[in-house]
Specification:
The chain is of the alpha/beta class. It has two domains: 175 residues, Periplasmic binding protein-like II (D-Maltodextrin-Binding Protein, domain 2); 163 residues, 3-Layer(aba) Sandwich (D-Maltodextrin-Binding Protein, domain 2), CATH 3.40.190. Helix content is 42%, strand content 15%.
Length: 345
């Protein structure tokens, strides 16, 4: 279980003080953020430490994307992390908060691709779903009406007559954000009346399409994808929401659910055919490049690892297309800062 954000900040400050942190740059590189990106950044940190013994080993924490960006944007200096992992792109409101707190040199790197996978136990009834069916099962107000479904067969008679039980991440998670955007909103917008509503009452439309029911149908499992794997494996018929890489690592315990006729595979996610495909990011605090020894070298280690032949693919990451890799490698080489126009693009 991760520490609360305030507790993590205090612990980080104490650790940095003990390491002689501050402008002298003695302390280790600190990374917070997404549980999905965590194993990839941890792998980079381990290789960086082996290849660069003159630098301290980076400290990598899993706090969730939202919580990590909050920490990252809270300021500049020894008490604040150098890098944040994110399983979604930084929002304009977060970018503005960063700038307001003096974090005005942010380097954005799209490090790879992952899929938001829906998984089930191989011992459960095999199920295939559409985004509309998932939305109707898990929305607090499906299409603006009362939520009355209790079983999957209530959603569609062709589905199994078993209770709707889905383990998923909390609201601080980028995986939760991706689920809302890629699955819930897309499923909601299959209804023409909802699409028409956007012109008349956009706020109501957003609430209807993005609010997840809060009863036992959707069970928050924290920022721990391994826990979701365990719960789904132990409860045939239950579903789970997590990153494809975790599914691939645990294919003996869980299997992917087909969504809109597409299975979650390396190829279907790499070409964005699978509805849950999503890019993964790390954000580097350029304000710390001079103060934190090894930060620049750590970033270049990440770039060296993210290609189709790199070790991150062996960890379960799906490599970006060549053109995308070249674009972000150039940004890393120049440590080019993210702009408001970039965020809005």
């Amino acid at each position: 279980m991760r520490a609360p954000i305030t507790g993590l900040l205090a612990a980080m400050a104490a650790t940095l003080a003990a390491c002689g942190g501050g402008d002298g740059g003695v302390r280790a590189i600190t990374v917070v953020g997404s549980s999905t990106v965590y194993p990839f950044t941890r792998a980079v940190a381990e290789n960086f430490a082996r290849n660069n013994p003159e630098f301290r080993s980076p400290v990598v924490e899993s706090t969730g994307t939202g919580g990590g960006i909050e920490l990252f944007c809270s300021g500049v200096g020894a008490d604040h992390p150098d890098i944040v992992n994110a399983s979604r792109r930084m929002r304009m409101s977060e970018f503005e908060t960063c700038n307001a707190n003096g974090v005005d040199h942010i380097i954005e790197l799209r490090v790879g691709i992952d899929g938001l996978a829906v998984v089930e136990s191989p011992e459960g009834p095999e199920i295939a779903l559409t985004r509309a069916q998932i939305y109707e099962a898990l929305a607090a107000e499906p299409y603006g009406g009362a939520q009355t479904t209790e079983t999957w067969s209530d959603v569609d008679p062709s589905l199994p007559d078993i209770p709707i039980r889905v383990y998923g991440p909390p609201t601080t998670s980028g995986t939760r954000d991706a689920f809302i955007e890629l699955i819930m909103e897309a499923g909601c917008e299959t209804n023409p009346a909802i699409v028409a509503m956007e012109e008349d009452d956009e706020d109501r439309k957003d609430r209807i399409c993005t609010t997840v029911r809060d009863d036992q149908a959707f069970i928050e499992a924290g920022e721990n994808d391994n826990l979701i794997i365990q719960r789904v494996a132990q409860n045939p018929g239950y579903l789970g929401l997590l990153g494809y890489s975790f599914m691939a690592e645990n294919e003996d315990e869980v299997i992917g659910v087909t969504i809109d006729g597409v299975e979650p595979t390396y190829d279907s996610i790499a070409n964005f055919e699978y509805p849950g495909a999503r890019p993964l990011y790390v954000y580097i605090k350029g304000n710390h490049l001079q103060a934190i020894r090894g930060l620049r070298e750590f970033v270049l280690e990440y770039v060296s690892a993210w290609g189709p032949d790199g070790y991150l693919v062996q960890e379960g990451m799906i490599a970006n297309p060549e053109e995308t890799r070249a674009h972000f490698a150039a940004i890393a080489e120049e440590m080019r800062p993210l702009t408001a126009e970039d965020v809005q693009s």
